[in-house]
Design brief:
The complex is a heterodimer. By secondary structure, chain A is α/β, with parallel strands linked by helices. Helices cover 43% and strands 12% of the residues of chain A. Chain B starts with a helix and ends with a helix. Chain B is α+β, with helices and mostly antiparallel strands. The chains are: A alpha/beta, B alpha+beta. Chains A and B meet through strand 3, strand 5, strand 11 and helix 13 of A and helix 2, helix 4 and helix 5 of B.
């Protein structure tokens, strides 16, 4: 398989987990071993389970899939004693709109992720794992299958790995087109051969996950960061970022920018600095209007709110999320009402239909937003969109409902004049006429 | 129902991946890989997989109905999937989709009478930084313009 870089790297990046990207045969065992690969695995052989987990905790690595939950803490929830075997599941369902980083990690440096998986497996005592890859990434599933084959042949997987006495089996599992399967419990249902409908929690996967056994479930990027943490030490990694937000992360820059691409930067980098210096600024020198900072589930930021540090806590304080790192930049020509409609069409399509607030809420929100865009909206529709989205928030079975509500509430609040302009064009929009009708 | 030896080998391998008694885990991959060979999910295929996994045909059917990449009707030889989600939309994905509709003479989830092309407007395919993106069958094409789309379609014969 030919592995090429999709965008030229920037000299301003801090390349920790992407350092092998674009080098020849970066996905082969020999390349990996020649560049520090499996040093971390050998190091954890000398460590106790608690020491490994404490090291990951001290690195302040947080989940890179979207929720930003501290990884070490998640591993610590897995019961030490268990009658059932324990499992590792990798969430490679990468479906959050705006996100295209896990693809690169699996394409360019898959063995780094595999080493991270093995370290997690040692930390919790797991002996089997699955990499759940979205069905659209078939080329990556084939790629990963060939990488796994080479790893088995070189004793990096299988029985008595590198003579350490540790056994681990790893498989790929294909998805079949469902955003919802990126939600951890829905992913596990899919892995068990069922509809990707979320499970009620607790119990969390750490206690009852894949096949009802204790399971560590993390994103591709989270596992990929682990070997460098162990190799260089937790402090080194934590110091790259800001307090409680350790290390670096891949940010997928998309939209109206000069140099869109996937770039690795330390947590806490200023968003405008990132956009202008690494991303080359706005496309065609136009004016910034808004940024969706971490995938379409995040509340949108207006231009004046974008001067902030990209770490989990600062973003939360600003009322949004770092999410999955899918940053979508919009310039002054962007029609925010159409953006809101497109986002809602997505969530409506992807709602699994299990719970009513999400299934009906996304349907009605899509219809109302379409009505406004089509020029048939009335003034009260604008409030209704905001109210209905707020009513969904926190009342759905899984976070998909919140993911649909949050961007919608923020767009209506921050760009209300644009909605009003649409409504003003409708000659039948006055409330009196609506009431008569 | 018979499959190619390669697919049979793949099925046999898949069934070893899951804990004892939980072989149903192979269902989604089996459906995906079988569909590649049969062109669509037929009643016969669902019955066969149900038999092999020890579940009911209805249990297979409800899974098929859930996933957007599993389809009961055959698609074109070249299934063109145009992403119009936000990142692609900002870079002209919607116009690209309109162009594809016009060029192919079919709309969303429709197949040409000749069976050569089918079209689908899809949700985010994970190529946001190289938008607008399309997939033809499983192949990604990045930074697609209308001219580039014409060339890609021209190459599909």
């Amino acid at each position: 398989m030919q592995v090429k870089l999709y965008n030229p790297p920037s000299p301003l990046e801090t390349r920790v987990i992407s350092k092998r990207f674009g080098t020849p045969d970066s996905w082969r065992v020999d390349t990996y071993l020649a560049t520090g690969g499996f040093e971390a695995f050998k190091k954890v052989h000398e460590m106790s389970q608690d020491q490994i987990i404490d090291e990951v905790k001290a690195s302040s690595l947080r989940g890179r899939g979207g929720a930003g939950f501290p990884t070490g803490m998640k591993w610590g929830f897995v019961p030490r004693q268990s009658e059932l075997p324990k499992y590792i599941v990798v969430n490679a369902d990468e479906s959050e709109p705006g996100t295209c980083k896990d693809r690169l990690l699996m394409e360019h440096d898959p063995i780094q992720m595999i080493e991270g998986i093995l370290i997690a497996a040692k930390a919790v005592g797991a002996s089997k794992g699955w990499i759940y890859i979205r069905g659209e990434y078939r080329y990556l599933i084939d790629h990963m299958d060939s990488v796994l084959k080479e790893c088995y042949a070189r004793n990096l997987l299988g029985k008595n790995i590198l003579g350490t006495g540790f056994d681990f089996e790893l498989y790929t599992q294909t998805g079949a087109g469902a955003y919802e399967c990126g939600e951890e419990s829905a992913l596990l249902e899919s892995l068990e051969g069922k509809r990707g409908v979320p499970r009620i929690r607790p119990p969390f996967p750490a206690v009852s996950g894949a096949f009802q056994a204790p399971t560590v479930l993390n994103n591709v990027e989270t596992f990929s960061a682990v070997p460098e943490i162990i190799r260089n030490g937790a402090k080194w990694y934590a110091d790259l970022g800001t307090p409680r937000n350790g290390g670096t992360r891949l940010v997928c820059l998309a939209g109206h920018v000069e140099r869109p691409g996937v770039y690795e930067v330390p947590l806490g980098m200023n968003m405008l600095y990132f956009l202008n210096e690494i991303g080359g600024g706005m496309l065609g020198g136009r004016k910034l209007k808004a940024i969706i900072p971490g995938g379409s589930s995040c509340p949108i930021l207006s231009a004046e709110e974008c001067d902030l540090a990209m770490d989990y806590d600062t973003m939360a304080k600003a009322g949004t999320m770092l999410g999955s790192g899918g940053m979508m930049v919009m310039d002054e020509t962007t029609d925010m009402v159409k953006v809101a409609l497109r986002i809602m069409r997505f969530y409506n399509h992807e709602s699994c239909g299990w719970c009513i607030p999400c299934r009906e809420g996304t349907t009605w929100l899509r219809k109302m937003l379409a009505r406004i865009v089509d020029g048939n909206g009335s003034a009260r529709d604008i409030d209704l969109v905001g109210d209905l989205a707020s009513a969904m928030l926190g009342r759905t079975f899984c976070p998909l409902g919140d993911a649909a509500a949050l961007p919608t509430i923020s767009v209506v609040k921050k760009f209300r004049p644009e909605f009003e302009a649409y409504v003003a064009k409708n000659p039948f929009a006055t409330s009196e006429l609506v009431q008569v009708a | 129902m018979t499959f190619s030896p390669q697919l049979e080998a793949r099925f046999a391998e898949l069934l070893t991946h899951y804990p004892e008694g939980r072989q149903r885990g192979a269902l989604v991959p089996m459906l995906m890989y079988a569909q590649d060979e049969t062109g669509a999910i037929t009643q016969e295929l669902m019955e066969e997989l149900a038999k092999r996994l020890g579940i009911t045909t209805l249990q297979v059917d409800e899974v098929v109905g859930y996933y957007s990449m599993l389809h009961k009707k055959p698609q074109g030889k070249y299934h063109v999937q145009v992403c119009t989600n936000v990142a692609c939309m900002l870079r002209g994905g919607a116009e690209l989709y309109g162009h594809a509709c016009e060029k192919l003479g079919v709309g969303h989830k429709q197949t040409q009478a000749s069976g050569l092309f089918s079209l689908e407007e899809v949700e985010c395919i994970g190529a946001c930084s190289w938008a607008p993106a399309i997939q033809v069958n499983y192949d990604f094409h990045h930074e697609v313009t209308t001219e580039k789309l014409d060339q890609i379609l021209e190459g599909c014969k």
